[in-house]
Amino acid sequence: MNNGSNSKFIILHSAFIVLLLAPPTPLPQEIPSQILEQVQKKYSRLETLAAEFVHIYHAPGSRTLRESGYVWLRRPRRMRWEYTSPEEKLFISDGTMVYFYVPADRQVTRARIKDVNDLRVSFIFMLGRFDIRQFFSRFELTQRESPVQAGNYVIRLTPEKRYAAFAELIVEVVPDTFELRRVSIVEFGGARSDFLFSNVRENVPVSAEQFSFTIPPNVQVLEERELE
Question: Could you tell me if residue 215 is inside a domain?
Fold first, then answer.
C-alpha cells in the first residue's frame, strides 16, 4: 500500500474518536482534552457496537448511490457490514483479513486489513483508543450542513496537511449522549460518502462466528487487492 493509502487509513480510523469530542459552543483549550479523556474512558469499556446504516455516495457527474443495511463491530478489529438494499452485499473483517462478497456477482475480494483502502475499515477502530489531535488542525461547528436530527452537533474537521488524504470530515453527534448519527468524508475531487446511523446499541451480544466468512463454492476469489 502506498504512502497515500497509509495516511488515509491512519487518519480515518483515528477520526472516530474525534467525532465524540465537539462541545456545543467555543470553549477554552483545556476543555476538549477533558472531553477526550472522558470519551476514551467510556469507549474503552465497549466490546461491541451495532447499528442500522444508510450509505450514500455521490461523485460529480455521477448519479447518487444509496444503500442500507446493518453493521456490527466487535473488539478487536472485527466488523460486519450487511447490505440488504438495493442488493445484498457483505463486507467482513475477522480481525486479520477483510472479505467483500457480492452474491449476484459470484465474487469475493480478499485482503489483509493493512492493505485495504476502504472507508468502512476505519470503523473497526471506533472501539479503540487514539489521540487524533496530531492528525487534524481544526475542529469547528458548522452551519453549512443541516443535521439529520434537529439539535445535533455538526462538526467539520480539517486534516493536517501532511496527513491530508481527503478534504474534510463532517461528523454529527447527539448532545449529552455523544451518539454517532453521521460521518461524511469529502474527497478533494468532490466525491462524498455519507454514513448515517440509527438504532445504535452498545455492548450487544454478538457471536464471534458472525465475523467469520467461508468462501462459497464456485465463487471467483480476488486476492490482495485494495477494496474501493
Answer: yes
Looking at the DSSP bridge assignments, the partners of residue 221 are 108
Q: Does residue 117 form part of some domain?
A: yes
Q: Tell me if 228 is assigned to some domain.
A: no
Q: Per residue of the chain (228 residues), what is the pLDDT tens digit?
A: 455 545 554 445 544 434 444 344 444 333 333 443 454 566 667 899 899 999 999 999 999 999 999 999 998 899 999 999 999 999 999 999 999 999 999 999 999 988 887 778 777 766 765 655 666 677 777 778 898 999 877 777 777 776 667 788 887 777 777 777 888 888 888 999 999 999 989 999 999 999 999 999 999 999 866 565
Please give the residue range of the domain that contains residue 126.
Answer: 3-223
User: DSSP string covering the chain, please?
Assistant: --HHHHHHHHHHHHHHHHTT---SS---THHHHHHHHHHHHHHTT-SEEEEEEEEEEE-TTSPPEEEEEEEEEETTTEEEEEEEESS-EEEEEESSEEEEEEGGGTEEEEEEGGG---GGGGGGGGGS---GGGTEEEEEE-SSS--SSTT-EEEEEEE-GGG-SSSEEEEEE-TTT--EEEEEEE-TTS-EEEEEEEEEEES----GGGG---PPTT-EEEES----
Beta bridge partners, 139, equal 157
User: The domain that contains 125 carries what CATH number?
Assistant: 2.50.20.10
Question: In the chain, how many domains are there?
Answer: 1
